């Protein structure tokens, strides 16, 4: 007899493994199927995020930032370093260790929460609202049944047409995170989140980095003031970013040659030791056999879902990168928890208006809510306030005074509509803004709250004061 579960989750990334844990916590018998494996064939749950995304990229960003500090900032602190050098193999080893700690942590959490883990590929065999049959193909093959299925199969990198990834010279995110030595000339196609984060890692370690971006505007999703400041800082760091380019040909031989038209339409050629292609990601439903049950996908291949992650099939749900919305780990997690709660008959809450965005460059960039340009287009009257880290005591002590906090509030009600930060620890600072917006706070509310001194968070309070033209320290 096949094993049967209340909930079977297909995919063990942040959407899937978190959904499985929450479902099990709620007393539902739960299984999670994930096919990711280590080089020696062992299970490696955590998906893109843990294996070739959020976690390894932040590990390498930290290592390269440490090197950058040692090379450029320590002397100012009176610390002399002689014979400084980069050991990329050790950096990669540390990164792999951090990834493994996370893989092991998830396996431990499955055990602790009594989630049954299957290592292999899950695919639909058939079924209906009365129960679905799912094939698990791993070391062995078996069929399990589920009252509810949560599809959390994630996304894959998009390749340039006609230029497949070889992960030796033409790299996707996995290849970009496993470069064995510092490339002299590194090309990056796409000045999006991956392009900027990976470009920063290798630039800090000494590569000559050239980023080629199709759009004429830089960081179009960010607030214009932040994008402008970021462009200025990245240029100073030596990241070359060309906007408005049209790639015409990529030739891969001993190295990679990219032919493109620049923004003026002039033909250009650039040759690189390695090329990272980071032009977005596509939903992954490979091998899921969605046709076996009639699971609907949209034209772009995303699993079609409503606001509450219900698919067209009763008792089949989908979360994370494989459905509409931002491709972010924390968005996937929130959807996973909400779906588990809905299956258990409880309320599931995801507020898409307060999903924070972070780009882990140096300085970090983070925002929540709407940009000033979006609000203008919508005809909303706003008041804005900004405060530079240059005037923040903690930032001065850290020696990291680039950037600012900008707060946007409704001109009539003073409700906070967006907070945009470029500066040190923006990824941590943004949480205060998320909480404030979730509770419907006004800029006055933030201005009235006592913030610790000296702390970077005082810049957020001062930005709130600036909305009312009454900063104290600037
Ligand atoms: P995934 O993490 O992709 O997990 C899907 C899992 O399902 C995988 O393990 C896959 O092997 C498995 N699977 C697929 N099909 C099957 C099947 N049929 N059977 C069994 N298993 C299957 N987001 C952030 O919020 N912050 C960051 O800092 C960040 N950094 C990133 C850096 C990089 C380089 C990249 C590429 C992405 C980054 N992201 C970041 C995005 C984040 O990784 C994704 O949004 C997140 O992983 C999506 O989670 P998911 O659970 O939907 O899918
Ligand atoms: P992206 O959507 O962030 O950026 C892709 C960029 O490539 C865009 O600027 C786009 O205009 C450009 N582009 C597209 N086609 C092009 C072409 N032919 N030539 C030149 N430029 C082209 O996608 P990216 O960087 O691949 O990352 C994928 C997703 O992963 C992100 O959208 C994000 O959701 C997630 N991610 C999140 C991170 C974070 O939260 N810190 C870090 C890294 C990735």
What does this structure look like?
With 474 residues, the chain is an alpha/beta fold. It is 31% helix and 26% strand. It has three domains: 3-156 and 282-350, 3-Layer(bba) Sandwich (FAD/NAD(P)-binding domain); 170-279, 3-Layer(bba) Sandwich (FAD/NAD(P)-binding domain), CATH 3.50.50; 356-467, FAD/NAD-linked reductase, C-terminal dimerisation domain (Enolase-like, domain 1, 2-Layer Sandwich). The termini are far apart. It binds flavin-adenine dinucleotide and 1,4-dihydronicotinamide adenine dinucleotide. 1,4-dihydronicotinamide adenine dinucleotide is lined by residues 160, 189-195, 197, 212-215, 247, 278-281, 326-328, 358-360.
Count of spatially separate domains? 3
Q: Classify the beta-strand content into a percent band.
A: 25-35%
Q: Biggest β-sheet: count, sense, barrel? A: 5 strands, mixed, barrel
Give the total of beta strands: 21
Distance between the termini: 72 Å
Strand order of the largest sheet: 1-2-3-4-5
CATH topology of the largest domain: FAD/NAD(P)-binding domain
CATH H-level superfamily of the largest domain: FAD/NAD(P)-binding domain
Topology:
Blueprint: E1 3-10, H1 14-25, E2 30-34, H2 47-52, H3 54-72, H4 88-112, E3 115-128, E4 131-138, E5 141-151, E6 155-157, E7 170-171, H5 173-176, E8 185-189, H6 193-204, E9 208-212, H7 224-236, E10 240-242, E11 246-252, E12 256-261, E13 267-272, E14 274-277, E15 281-283, E16 316-318, H8 329-343, E17 357-359, E18 364-369, H9 372-377, E19 382-388, H10 393-398, E20 404-410, E21 416-423, H11 426-438, H12 443-448, H13 458-467
Parallel strand pairs: 1-2, 1-5, 2-3, 5-16, 7-14, 8-9, 8-14, 9-10
Antiparallel strand pairs: 3-4, 4-5, 6-15, 11-12, 12-13, 17-18, 18-21, 19-20, 20-21
Helix pairs in contact: 1-8, 3-4, 3-6
Bound molecules: flavin-adenine dinucleotide (FAD) and 1,4-dihydronicotinamide adenine dinucleotide.
